[in-house]
Each structure stands twice: as structure tokens, then as C-alpha cells.
Amino acid sequence: MFTALLRPLARSVTYTRGLHLALPMAAAALWMFIDMHSPWVPLLLAVPIGLIPGMRLAEAIQAQLFLTPHERGATDSSIAVAPAANWADRWRTVLWLEIRLLLSTALFGVGIPAILLCSDLVRAALGAGPTGDTLLSLTGPRWWYALIAPLPILVLLALLVGLGELVTACARWLLGPSASTRLHALEERTERLLENNRIARELHDSIGHSLTAMVLQAGAARATGEPEFTGTALAAIEDTGRTALVDLERVLAVLRDPSTPVDQRPMLTAASGLFDSARSAGATIDVDITGPIERVSGPVSREGYRILQEALTNALRHAGRVAVEVRVYADAQWLELDVSNSVPAAESAADRAVPADHGSGLRGIRERAELLGGDARMGLEDGQWRIWVRLPTHGLG
Predict the structure, then answer these.
(1) Are 66 and 12 in contact (CB under 8 A)?
(2) pLDDT tens digit sequence for 136-188
(3) Which CATH superfamily hosts domain 184-392?
(4) pLDDT computed for residue 95 by the predictor
(5) What are the residue ranges spanned by the domains of the chain?
(6) Who contacts 145 (Cβ-Cβ below 8 Å, separation ≥6)?
(7) pTM of the predicted model as reported, rounded to 2 decimal places
């Protein structure tokens, strides 16, 4: 318990907080030289000073530096380093200045007498005569004066720790982010998370599809051992690799500069490349496209392409070279994507029972559909693994 009481005295922040409390007395002492009979004037002057927007920024920087140095530079700091954005922030700054002045006065009101009393006790213990600033009339020498001499300093240190905690709590309350600032920070964080999820889906869908196709193409070439088929497979692997590199460069460009436009992302009109890639990996693709998909709005068309890509990747990765049926239907209200494939007979019943929510690819399909206000269903139907997605087109372009 005694160690716990002494622990705050070993922390450097205790003394930086004490320095922060002492700084306002410099201004107060300057005024006392001008007019000692009006000590309330600094409190009055704090009102117009606190209403200056930049004053909040200056006080926040100083408070963060001296009171919460461990939070310096942190995005979630409890003290917001920013100028006053509205009148509420300005009045909170005024209240902060008033409290800071009062706490500073309390520290000096106890600190100076405590130092003088300690000095008197030490001088009396040594037999020295009193000075003009003595607080007590002590006769000496008395050896036991030396034993109680540290007590005023201990009281001062305890007050320093207590006032340091109090001024830090006030700073977090009055200089901390307002409700609107917290909401704005939460919105920014949400936007960053959404963007990170979007980039993760892009990498998973584009690069994952290309790598899956390349692995299957290479496996098919090795299994056949025919020079002509091997050459065709190698050419397909080369094309797929080039496409993957283009997709990777596009996603990396967005990471380097978030303002990079996303118009370069492929749309449904380029889905034939997906089908050719899957066919070159050994799958049989039966495609039926109904409706003017070229007139589907850009965002819906781009997300539809990625959903088709992930559905084909899922079929190739988990079912291999099987027959895949792709149905695409578009009208003025909806875009429907329906991809189904047979499930290999060797697949165990336990594998068939795996929920569709497992795996980041299928989860990404659901997320894409939900973000656009659509819906997605996936699972086993009559021995076929089916992924069905419906997206609102908001009118054809």
C-alpha cells in the first residue's frame, strides 16, 4: 500500500502537470505587480481571451503536452487539438481558463506556505534565528523539528498529485472533442473501414480468381501431357497473369491515392473474359444473358462483374472442372445473376453442410449485394451449388 502511494511521485507526468498548473501564476503575478488589490482581474480577462478560436488550439496543445503526453499525436486523444469550431467550444475554453487559474491559485496558496514552514522547521532545528517571512514563532534548537520538517512537503506533493489528476480530468472534459467532433471522427473511421473492405474484396475477387484459374490451367496441362494442350494452357496462364497484374496495379493505385477514379474497374460487358478464363481451366460454361446489360448503371455493372467473378472462382476452386451454368438478366428495375454448378460426388456430406457464410469470397458477395440494396442467396439446391444475386439497377443508363 505504501508503494502504491509513492508510485505517482515516481511518474514524470506528475511534475509536468505541476508545471502546467504553475504557468498561469506567471500572468497572475505580473498583474499583482500592477494592482495587488484586484486579484480577480485575471479571471475577468480570461473571458475575452477564451472566446478567441485559436486560444482553444493553444490550450489543447499545451494540455496534451503537459497533462497527457502519452496521447500526443494519437488520433483518439482525449484532448482535441483543434481551434474552437463553434460558440459552445469557445465557452468551454473560457470555463477551462477559469478553472485552470483557480487550481493554480490553490497550488500556490498551499505550496508557498508549505515551503516556508519546512524552512522554518529546519532553521529552528539547527538553532538559526527566524527570518522576516517566518510563519511560526519557534524556539530552538529542537532536534525533533527536523523529524516533522518533511510533513509540509509531503502535503504539498499530495496536493500536487491530486490537483494534477483534477486538472487532467477537467482538460479531458472541456478540451476534449465535442459530440459533433466525435461523430465526424466516427464517420471518417467508418469510411476508412468501408474503403479497406472494398479494397480487400477487390484483391480477393480479382487476384483470387486469376490465381485459381492459373493453378487449374497448369494442373490440366500437366495432367494431359499433350504438347498442343500444354501450349494453349501456358498461353492462357500468361494472359490470366497479365490481367491479374493490371488488376493489382489498379488496386495499388487506389491505395497510393484514394482519389483515383474507379471507372477502370471491369463491367459486365467484359464478362466474356471471365468465361474464357474458366473454360481454359477445364470448366464447361453455359452462358445465357438476357436484357441490355450494357445499359446497367456503372456501379451496379462493376459490382455485378465482381460477383460473377467470385461465383466462378468459387466453382473452380471447390468443384474443379465441372459444368457451370450462368444466367444474367437485366431490366429497368433489377439485375439478376444466377450461377450454379454440379457438386462432385466425392464431396462428403460434411463438406456439403458447410454454411454459405464461411469464406471471405461468399461473404464479399453478400456485402456487395447489401451495399447496393439488393440481396443474395447461396447454397445447395437439388444437388447443385447455386449463387443467386439480385441488384436494383435504379433504371438503365
Answers:
(1) no
(2) 666 666 777 778 888 888 888 888 899 999 999 999 898 888 666 666 666 56
(3) Histidine kinase-like ATPase, C-terminal domain (3.30.565.10)
(4) 92
(5) 2-177, 184-392
(6) 121, 122, 124, 125, 138
(7) 0.49
